[in-house]
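Changelog-adjacent note: as of this version, every example in the card shows the full chain rather than a window. The one below runs 506 residues end to end.
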Amino acid sequence: MLRKNLRSSLLPLSKPSATPTAIHRFFSSSSLRQNVLNELESRGMLQDLTSRAARQHVEKPTTVYLGVDPSANSLHLGNLLALIGLLHFRLQGHNAIALIGGATGSIGDPSGRSTERNALSPETLEANVAGITRQLTTFLDRGVAFAQSRTRRRDNEATTTATGEGKETVEGTIRVENNMKWIGGMSLLDFLSKVGKMARVSTMLSRESVKSRLDSSSGISFTEFSYQLLQAYDFLTLHRLHNCTIQLGGSDQLGNIASGIDMIRRSKFGNDVEEEEGGKGGGDDPAFGVTFPLLTTASGEKFGKSAGNAVWLDPKMTSPFDVYQFFLRTTDEEVEKYLKIFTFIRVVEIKGIMEDHKAQPSARIAQKVLAAEATELIHGSEGLQQALAATKLFYTPSSSLASLIDESFLLALDGSSSTSTIPSILVRLPKSDILGDKLEKIAIESGLFGSKTQARKAIEAGTLQINGVKIKAKDHQRKIEEGDLLQGKLVVLKAGKSGNKAVLLE
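Full-length structure tokens:
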């Protein structure tokens, strides 16, 4: 008889088995694969394992999946840790699946929520699925090549195998799936007979996400109560279709992951599987769960949130410049942790970066490395170049601004090559319409302010800057003159929390 109670068999993580020296030795050895769980643990990316047998299981190639619900049309920085975790599995030769919850997204996951989500319309859900599918495909394709460039060994060998043509191919695969494929056409009777019969209400009620809602004044609907069954069925389906044996997720997903493992077990061994307290996990595990910590900033805010707004991975929603600035503002207390999590720089090299940083803390060496690496991972080299150019533009003293402006600099700001998805950071306005007109016109037409009233108040309050110089309240009637144009064509506007604008007059 099988012994299993996943809630009580979660194992405390042991100390990392590899010191930085040992990691260096590994990458200098001839082995092409290391234990990905040890790597994640050394980076502070591992929260829980559902069984200690998972460490042995990943010694051989397997298939792992990460689910993402399309609650918006873009992912945000809160999703980034898990996506990077998926890439780590991919880099060590495992097959990776990113699963979009086209079906589960219409219900909403109760995990970590005190109230029920607002239902999305079918049109909104469809648009969100399409947006995230494109985003995941681009991110994962670019992420593999980017991560490999950072994890090459000191002997310049990549973790790849050579083909007969002398080229290198990476082990493992990445695919993007949508659970609407297998849930969308399922009738209620099919769901009850195929899925419901393998679930135990007592176990479902014991999940923390359900218990916390049952104890709240809002309660929980049957719809959200059933969410864990749908996610469990996803794991079972991927197990059957692709031999997927590991699910990744944030620590708040532990109960849902456990439901999937239990469903896989019952599908294999029947519903008489005995659940005992104190199970330790062993050779009878048909599947495993790996969870990541939920990150918060030093101030206790949810990671990726700024004044209540998510930092999105879509460059049209959050520019590469704003992503770069978000990471650049990382505190000294958090920066080493974030370097380990959000970059693929080897741990031994991160220790060297931190030594340099501590020797010159005012230079913010570690923050600059973190911001550059994270921005390039998310938005590619073009996005990073735009972010660096915009940082120079908006934070260079006024006396030196004009010297920055040349064609290559403007090209980096533009970021709009034929194959790019990076929006230009330049706002283009007709020179004839702006020159000689009042400040408020360029402030409004550039998009810096939404109305004349807002623009006028900012100008009269003295919070508007042109080319790094504050406009005094007494000069609120002044006009844009030829002398305000850097190299005869560019005006840099700043207005505190309202933002920054680079206006190209053509």
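Structural remarks: Confidence is low (pLDDT under 50) at residues 1-32, 153-170, 275-283.
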